[in-house]
Amino acid sequence: MAFVELRGIKKYFGTVKAVDGVDVEIKDGEFLVLLGPSGSGKTTLMRLCAGLEKPTAGELVIDGEVVNDVPPRERGIAMVFQSYALYPHKTVFKNIAFPLTVEGMDRSEIREKVEWAAGLLGIGRLLERMPSQISGGEKQRVAIARALVRKPKVLLMDEPLSNLDAKVRHTARVELKKFQQEIGVTTIYVTHDQAEAMGLGDRIAVMSEGRVRQIGIPEDIYHDPADTFVAGFIGNPPMNFVEQNGVIVGFRPEVFLPAELASTEDQTKFRFKVVRVENLGSFKLAYGTIGETGVIANLQLRVPLEEGREYDFSIRSKDVRYYHRETGVRINK
Ligand SMILES: Nc1ncnc2c1ncn2[C@@H]1O[C@H](COP(=O)(O)OP(=O)(O)OP(=O)(O)O)[C@@H](O)[C@H]1O
Ligand SMILES: [Mg+2]
User: Fold this and answer.
1) Residues 173 and 287 in one domain
2) Which of 51, 213, 322, 323 is the most exposed place for a label (fewest CB within 10 A)?
């Protein structure tokens, strides 16, 4: 376990500002998810932590010690890549053992550690197989076991589940969270899958263009996005935005309800013209407009809505968020 601090970290590749001033503290044993669109600097930030890249500016601090000049192998950090990068001609055992073999550790100690890591991930029975003889989900566990075998203080994972199909991916996610809690290793996990981020993260850092736009617990990121970028990136469909009195009004599709279903609480009302209704079983999505602006309602109740008609819809005022029209930053009202 370790306490990790990123202080003013920047990484420029020529004119490309891959990481442009990141300040984050990651608590001992915390599971932090980095979430952001392609090119937002997630992998670069991980590579900086691992010591595979040198920062243009800033400090990386682990347990109070600045490690900028500490070589990767001595940082106590292990990284799992999206591709797993297993050695195809080595058995699962030898793949997991590899970081220890390189260190020249003696064979009985290696066996003990490999068995510990394999046991933790439930792959003890696969040790004598070759990578070509195991499934994608099993490969992913082998890669994690190899990362854990040196008992790192910090575990970095860059989209480790993205090669798996949806069903296996969900199981793998649940297992990943379980073993991370068991061993309590401080973890930084990259994804651009928001369901994964919400399900795994103790906290989520939302990145865009090399910066952290917001960091917080999943609840807060979802319900109280700090700006229109985060609000529009998180949620499927994302938050609706309507301009009103010089301010951007934001509300989630599921808090936008037919007025007759609304409670007696303080309400913000709109005329909603329904253009198309998509029935998705447990809920339906109503696509339409408020004035000229496209918005979406997510309705979990059986509400008859006709395409082409206008309805009175409302939102509890406490579910409405306000954003600055130019900067997109949240305004408290
Ligand atoms: N070695 C490099 N040389 C030049 N530019 C680079 C280099 N590595 C990354 N970049 C650029 O830095 C930016 C951030 O890249 P990075 O790989 O960190 O993004 P990412 O958030 O991991 O994206 P993805 O979700 O697609 O993996 C991109 O614009 C990328 O083109
Ligand atoms: Mg990446």
Assistant:
1) no
2) 322
